[in-house]
Every structure is written in C-alpha cells, then in structure tokens.
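hiii, so i know i said id send this last week but things got crazy w the move. better late than never?? heres the sequnce for the chain we talked about at the cafe, plus the structure i predicted for it. fair warning i was half asleep when i ran it
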Amino acid sequence: MIKQRTIKDSVRIEGAGLQTGKKATLNLKSSPPNSGINFIRTDLANKPLLNVQSLCLDKPSALAALRRTTLGAGPLQIQTTEHFLAALSGLSIDNIIAELDSEELPGLDGSAKEFLDAMKKTGIIEQDAPKKILKIDKPLWCEGEDSILAVFPNDDFKISYTLSYKEPALGTKFLSIVIDENTFAKEIAPARTFCLKEEAQALLKTGLGKGANFENTLVMDRDGPVKNVLRFPDEPIRHKILDLVGDLYLLGMQIKGHVVCVKSGHRLNMELVKKLKAII
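okay and structure toks below
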C-alpha cells in the first residue's frame, strides 16, 4: 500500500507576494490522514478555511487565472498557489494545513524550490491511510485558440510540453519528462517564473507584478534574461511544467497519465482540472 504523507514538524516561510507585493507569512502544519490541503486565512475574521479538494471549479469566482492561479472568492482568496502546490505534489504530500496572513502566498525566488527545501528540511512522514491516485483510463483534452492540453493513459506521471514564442530568446522548445520526487526536485522545482520585457510595464499598470524583480522573475529580452542568468538553458519551459504540476494538484491527488501540452497556461490547466474532477 502506498501511504498518504504529511510534514513532520511545523514550517514558517516569509516573503512578499509576486503579484501584490504584500508581505506574507505562511505557517505549515501537519494534518491527519484524508484531511487534504487546507488553507486558513489567519488575518481574516474567524480565520476562514479553504479546502482545496472541496473547491467548486464551475463557479467563476472559485478559481481565476490571470498569470497566476487564485483560489476562493471575495475576501477569502489565496493567490498564486501554483508554486506551493507544485512543491506539495513533488513531495507527494497529501495532507497539510497552510496558515496565511495575507491574500497571496510568498513569492520567494519565483520557483517551487524554497517551498520544497523548507518542507524537506522539517521532514516528510507517512500516514496510516492509502494514498489516492487518479489513474487515467481514457483520453481527455481541452483546446484554446492556438493551444491544446490533453491527458492519455500511462503508468507514470509524464508531461510533454511544447512552448512557442516569437521572442528569439524563448522560441520554440519541447521537453518531455516523467515527474517523480527526484526529477521534480532536480529538473523542475528550481525553474523560475518569467515574462517578456515588453510585458513587464503592462503588468504593473494592471496592478500585477508588484513583488517581482530581476531575481525572482526572468524578464526575457531578445538576448535572454535581463540582469540574470538562466538556471537551465530551457528554464521557461520547465517553469511552464512546474505551473502545470501545481495546477493539477488542485485535484488533491496525483495522477498516472501522460499530459501533452502545446502552449497551455493557467486557463487551460483549469479546464483540464475541471474535467478530471468530474471523473474522480
């Protein structure tokens, strides 16, 4: 029996949100078997709880995607969840309490690495309950104007991603990788978020990117990242895979299937999550 997992001891993580720029403290605590992933907004009256597995994704306010994934509605929002959820998926953590004193999770270095490292440092423990895994038994897909996201039966959790930009520094790239604890930690978790140089000012005008800088965000010019150095030659495509891993973990369980993506982002990721939740 593959068992469920949680963290051994509490973890405290601090930082500013990538989009809002607001300082936030995230306190992570162990949680009982079958309790799932639970966010608690400690800065709000009565400290409301948001259980990821219980989200109704058919409601527009329940989950939005504008350059990040936002959970909740009204004042009970948890913004930019994808990097943290990707770390949970990468460590195969099923149950956790995440107490947050702001509307957005700390952005840290713009990847999942610091979340991953903090939880690995405190330790991961197995629990006396079977792990829930969604095994894909038939193809599912969704399409955008020039993008597609599909999942096919497979004995592993595999992602094949095609990235395509007109910007020379990004261009067209392809990466196919089997995601497990080892490959996620080494090949995907350190990949940082990115944007095009011409997008940066436009994002600020819309109220986004207030916590972004040249260290936690790859600002891509035609010659490469501005005031930064790539961690991988194809770091942007690896971050796209990171985002997808995090968004898929809104299912509250890992999947066994081959996910094939062409230019997909948060919006299409959410469409696939909705279809997958319908078959659980």
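btw The CA atoms of residues 239 and 278 lie 27 Å apart. thought thatd interest u
miss u guys!!
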